[in-house]
C-alpha cells in the first residue's frame, strides 16, 4: 500500500530539477506516505538512534521508555548490568507491555494475558501453557524461544544509549564518523559520569524535518534570536564553522564565544535589527557562561535521524526529535550535567536552562516560527523553497550566514529516499 | 466561633483574594503588577510533574530572586518572538496548610489559551505550591512552585503561570 501511494505521489510530485541541492519542495512536510517511508528509511532503517542516558537506569531492573521514530521502546539494565533496548510490544498480541515512563522491575509481565519476559526480552512463561482442566493450552510444538520481545542492537558512547533496528547498520563509531564521535566525547565531558538534571517536553505542530532544519540553520539564529544576538552568545561577528559530515548525514555548528564582543556594535551588527543594544539583564549570570571545556567554544551538532546535542553556555541538553505524524513532532529535552559538578556549576546550568525548552528565552522563537510555518506548507504543497544562502553546494563554511547544512541534509536525504 | 477559627477564616478569604488578584494580573497581561506579588528573595518555578516527582532540579521556568522576574518580563517585551494569544487562568481549591509567620498554601490552576484562526485549548493544568509572607501588610510569595500535570507543553509556554 505504501509503495503504491509513494509511486502515485511521486508521479505528480518530484523534487525540482533545477538547482536540486538548493530547492526544497513543500509537499515533503505533509505527505503521509512519504512520512511512513521516512520512518522506515531513517528511524527503523540502518541508523543509530538516541534512546537515553546510561545514568537514567543505574540499577539492575531499572527501565525507561523512549521512542525510535513512531515506535516505542524500553531501555532496561539487565541482571548482568548490560543495557538492553526492547520494543514495548508484547510478542503475543502486540499490547503495550510497559505503561510507566520509568520504573524498576524483576521482569516484564504483559497486563493483557500475563505473558512474562526476562530483562533480555526472553519469554519465560505464559498462563495456561498446558490449558486448564485438560482443555485448551498451547500446541505441543510451541517454542517459547521463538517468541521473545523484539530486541534491538545497542551501542554505548559518551554515556548515551543508542539503538538500531537494522542488522545492516555499521558499528556506531563508523556511523558517527571521527568528527562527530570526538564531539560526542567532548559533550560527555571526556568520560566524566553524567548526571540527569531533568526533562522538558513539548509537542510542536510541525513536521520533524522543519525542526531538524532549524537545528542546522545558523543563518536564522543571527536574526530571529534577539536574545542570543543582544547578549553576544551567538553572533555573526564571532568565529564560526558550519560543517556537514558524511555527505550531510550529520552537521556541526561551532562558534567561539567572545566576551569582548558581547553587547557591542560594529559594522556587522548594524545590519541586525534584532540587536537591542540598550537592553540589559538585572541578573547577567544567565548570559555569562564559564568556559568549562577549555576551548572558548559553543559546539552544537545534529546526529541523524533524531538527536541534537546542545551546548548553550553551560546549559547542556540532548534534544530528542520524535516524529508523531507528518505534522506533529515531540521535542524531548534531556538536560544534564556531570556528577562531579560543584554546586555553583549546577546552579548555573539550572539558571541558563531558562534559555531553552518550551518557555526558553531563545527556544520559544523557534517553536513559534515553526508552528506558523506548517500551515503555510500544508496549504501550498507544490511550492518550492529556496536555500541559497552561502552558495548552492554542500561544502563546509566558516560563517553563520549559510544554509550549507540544510543543503547537505537534503542531499543525503534524497539519496536515501530515492528522490 | 473562637477567635482562632475566625482569624483562620479571615486568612483563607485573604488567600483566595491573593490567588484571584494574581491570576487577574496575568489575565490582564499586567506583568509589572505580577512582579509585585513576589518578595525580593523569591523563588518562582514552573516545573513538570515528571521532574517534580523525581526530584529533578530542572524547571521549565526558574526565577531565583526578583531580578530574574524582572528579566523575564523584559525579555517578553523586548526580545522574544511569539504569536499573540490570550491566556485565561481558572484558579480554585485554595487551601491553607500552615498559618505561621510563613504561610503554606496551595491551589489548583487551569490555563486556557486562545489564538487566532483556531479553537481555544487547555494550555496547562496543575497546582500552585506556595510559601507566603506578610510584608507591609500585604501577602507576598516567597516561593511559588507551579507544578503542571501535562506530560508536554503544546508548542510554547510564553507567559508566566
TrEMBL record, chain A:
<dbReference type="GO" id="GO:0051213">
    <property type="term" value="F:dioxygenase activity"/>
</dbReference>
<keyword id="KW-0411">Iron-sulfur</keyword>
<dbReference type="InterPro" id="IPR001663">
    <property type="entry name" value="Rng_hydr_dOase-A"/>
</dbReference>
<dbReference type="InterPro" id="IPR036922">
    <property type="entry name" value="Rieske_2Fe-2S_sf"/>
</dbReference>
<keyword id="KW-0560">Oxidoreductase</keyword>
<dbReference type="Pfam" id="PF00355">
    <property type="entry name" value="Rieske"/>
</dbReference>
<dbReference type="Pfam" id="PF00848">
    <property type="entry name" value="Ring_hydroxyl_A"/>
</dbReference>
<dbReference type="InterPro" id="IPR015879">
    <property type="entry name" value="Ring_hydroxy_dOase_asu_C_dom"/>
</dbReference>
<dbReference type="InterPro" id="IPR017941">
    <property type="entry name" value="Rieske_2Fe-2S"/>
</dbReference>
<comment type="similarity">
    <text>Belongs to the bacterial ring-hydroxylating dioxygenase alpha subunit family.</text>
</comment>
<keyword id="KW-0001">2Fe-2S</keyword>
<keyword id="KW-0408">Iron</keyword>
<feature type="domain" description="Rieske">
    <location>
        <begin position="48"/>
        <end position="163"/>
    </location>
</feature>
<protein>
    <submittedName>
        <fullName>Aromatic ring-hydroxylating dioxygenase subunit alpha</fullName>
    </submittedName>
</protein>
<keyword id="KW-0479">Metal-binding</keyword>
<keyword id="KW-0223">Dioxygenase</keyword>
From TrEMBL, chain B:
<dbReference type="InterPro" id="IPR032710">
    <property type="entry name" value="NTF2-like_dom_sf"/>
</dbReference>
<feature type="domain" description="SnoaL-like">
    <location>
        <begin position="10"/>
        <end position="144"/>
    </location>
</feature>
<dbReference type="Pfam" id="PF13577">
    <property type="entry name" value="SnoaL_4"/>
</dbReference>
<dbReference type="InterPro" id="IPR037401">
    <property type="entry name" value="SnoaL-like"/>
</dbReference>
<protein>
    <recommendedName>
        <fullName>SnoaL-like domain-containing protein</fullName>
    </recommendedName>
</protein>
